[in-house]
Here is the input.
Amino acid sequence: MATLLELKQILKSYYVKFEFYITLVWKFFLTLITLNVINSKIGCQEALTSPLIVLMCSLLCAILPQTFIVILSGLFIMAHLWALSMETAVIALAVFLIMYLLYYRFSPNDSTVLILTALCFYLRIPYVMPLAVGLLGSAHTVVSVAFGVVVYYYLNYIADNTSIFISGSADSDTSAAVISRVQSIVDGVFASKVMISVIAVFAITTIIVYILRRLSIKHSWDVAIVAGTITLMIGILVANVVSNAGFSVIGVILGSVFAGLLMKVLEFFAFNLDYKRIENVQFEDDDYYYYVKAIPKVSVATPDRKVKQINRATAPRSEERTERASQTPSRPSGQSPRSSAAGNAASHMQRTRSAGSAYARSQQSRSRAVNNNVTAGRQTRNSTGTGNQRSNRSE
Amino acid sequence: MVQEEKVILMTRMAAFTAREGSNDNRINGYFRSDYIGLEIVKSAISATVSFVILFAVYAVSAFESILEDMYSIDLVAFGQKVLTYYLIWLIGYCMVSYIFFSRRYSKMRKRMKKHYNNLRRLRKMYEKE
Here is the structure.
């Protein structure tokens, strides 16, 4: 466990150090995976399926704010659906508009949850999201999870029934055909009992996990994970019976347990999360321009190394010898008893590695300060000269 | 001469301005009632547009049944029913918006008070110089 905690600290320190690049990389990969999934499922607009376009869009989203991942994914979906049939694109536009008007106007940063929820479905780990959102997010993020489920079921329905929507035949553009296609979408997706029951189960699970995680009890995260996994399992199994969804019972149980185990890993990294961002700010006053990089402090617990002295009997003698040497009247010029004691303290501190690094540093700087004071006092009685020079140098 | 304390304070303030500061400044330009009122008006428009979209999708999907019942149903009663749904939707959404934007305004005021305190401290530092 100690090794794992140490690993966590090391990862944390790396994250703080390379936070900017890590953010670029995860945004790049999230966009790349999302666009590839969209292209593989409903890739009707051939120009957008080119790997070069996908790569360039991913690079663009890596630089832009994360909301652009959702906007670009939405545009890709719209373009593909427009190539497939007009009504699927119009309904997708209506869904996105409703999502924006009702929710993302309040909380635009939650839009990443929507993409992740849909992606988790495609990656066959859909039960991860309600647990993860309950642990890491806030209660209202459940809306984003619900929208993610809607988007997944909509795209899945279109992908499974592409033949219905392909326009090209003579009677496909008549108003009756358009209306029947819209009806099939509404019946197949928005009136689908499976989708509604999955949304309900996910929402209940997320809220239960969120409430339990916030309770001031021991092991609240563990309790939340276990309760969430059980709720998810039972809820999906009940939904399976109610809506005749055809979920595999073993798949649901194994998927829920796997999601619970993943949450344990997540808990390890995210519990007492204090990854702060590096601040790169610039400002000015009357005299200076300031370009400041403020890095949050991270206390990395270094392993407690103990140096075992085999020749223990001789070590104190040598120290005694140095002490005696410092007390002899024939000491070299420019060396005072106080400075040598401070020097001994510093050298002793260098030898002992078991002490914490911060403590050693503070002690060393203190002993250095003692040395400097002694030197300054000896060299000149006028304290202003040396003192001012030193302070200027330090600034 | 660069003062360490001053730089730390200015860095904190600059970091705040770069993140929430710009948005908070915009909200702080309104009185509480004006801000919440404006946002509720926007919410009412959003609720209306979303209701129209939902109703349109419903109307297209249930087009045949609506056409069949066109001459047999009581249009006034149907209109009242739709209007009732719309009002419930509108009032519910506006209430949620009111709670959300009230909280957002209160949080903004707390952050801005802290920011103004920092500004005051900075001004005192300059006055001392």
Remarks:
- The radius of gyration of chain A is 32 Å.
- The first strand of chain A starts at residue 279 and ends at 284.
- Residues 318-395 of chain A have pLDDT under 50 and may be disordered.
- The first helix of chain A runs from residue 2 to 17.
